[in-house]
Amino acid sequence: MHATLRRRCVRTLAAGALSAALVSAGSAGAFAAGTAPMPEPNATHSMKPMAKASITIDHTSVKAGKSVMLSGRTANLAAATTLTVQHLSNGKWTTLRGATVVKKGNTFTVTTKLAATGRQHLRVVSGPTRSKTVTVNVT
User: Fold this and answer.
1) Residue 90: left if φ>0, alpha if ψ -120 to 50, beta else—which one?
2) pLDDT: is 110 or 13 the higher one?
3) Domain parsing of the chain, residue ranges
4) DSSP 46
5) Residue 56: how many CB atoms within 10 A of its CB?
6) Lowest-pLDDT range, 42-46, 91-95, 113-117?
7) 12-30 b/e with 16+ CB inside 10 Å = b?
């Protein structure tokens, strides 16, 4: 009985020492990894601000075949950047005939005709930049 108790104590002591060694080795590695200097961003890897476009519409309801005017402002888009008008048709965005360029004050205005009746969802697009959608009821 006395020998069994001694074996248990020795096993517990060995397991405790092994656990302490593993914990200290892991924390030393984590501490060493955390002290490395972080790389500084340079001109070739700097992030550009994301371009944005906001849009407003002159009429929320028009007759089929009539024009609707979209206007808005952009941020971080260069002047003379081309913006195209798109509408949602059968779950896909298709480009309409209306296109414009960004003016010097980061504004734009474009007029397009809507022939299809029903609720039309419109937006302006320039590359990866997309505005939020506006809705027009065409009767």
Assistant:
1) left
2) 110
3) 52-138
4) P
5) 11
6) 42-46
7) eeeeeeeeeeeeeeeeeee
How high is the pLDDT of residue 65? Answer: 94
Structure tokens belonging to residue 65: 């075949």
How many other CB atoms sit within 10 Å of the CB of residue 99? 15
Cβ neighbours of residue 89 under 8 Å, at least 6 residues apart?
116
The verdict on pTM exceeding 0.70 is: no
Question: Per residue in 58-93, pLDDT tens?
Answer: 999 999 999 999 999 999 999 999 999 999 999 999
Q: Which two tokens stand for residue 22?
A: 């593993």
Coil, helix or strand at residue 18: helix
Pick the CATH number of 52-138 from 3.10.25.10, 3.20.20.370, 2.60.40.10, 1.10.260.40: 2.60.40.10
